[in-house]
Design goal:
four-stranded mixed sheet
Amino acid sequence: MTVVDRKGLDLPPSPIQDTETADDVWIPTVTQAGMSIITRDKKLLTRPGELDAIAASRARVFTILVEDDPSNWGLLEAVASQWRVMQSVADLPGPYVYGVTRTTCHQIWPERDRRT
């Protein structure tokens, strides 16, 4: 199965199929395939190994931060409501992690200088 992206390109499925694949393997593999990462891993910023893999591979990551409704529908609602912002951000070079909620999509890592 291939996916047609917004630019009309045929995209293959994720090169990683096993959900038990180590972070230092799957993050660079997916990034090298030209894909952004969408996750619901709330502890992402507390794991140095994951951040190291994101930084080394220059990954573009969107983590869904839904507290009030963590069901599939709640996750879908957050992504759908921020999809256009996520698409425009995904065109920027990584590494970065953006937090996604129903009302916002904002950079959470690396922390930006708030004075600029």
